[in-house]
Amino acid sequence: MSADMPIGLTVVEKIVGLILIIVGAIVAYASINPPPGDISHFAGIFTTAGVVVAIVGGFLLITKAE
């Protein structure tokens, strides 16, 4: 097997990481400032999930693919 990773795969990994950071930040922000309604009871769960998704995206963005 080849040890070289295709450059396209590395770029896609970085793009997916960036998308996960953006989605996680939006979910966390929307959960911290929820609109009035039923979702306000679960704001802590969604905030935690958004932060975890953003951290995973940051990990994908900063890791070096080998």
Mean residue pLDDT: 85
Unreliable residue stretches: none
Report the span from N to C terminus.
13 Å
Strand content: under 5%
Summarize the structure.
The protein is mainly α.
Topology at a glance:
Layout: H1 7-32, H2 43-62
Describe the protein in words.
This protein is an all-alpha fold. The protein is built from two helices and no strands. It has helices at residues 7-32, 43-62. The two termini are 13 Å apart. The model has no long low-confidence stretch (mean pLDDT 85).
Which characteristics define this entry?
66 residues, 2 helices, 70% helix
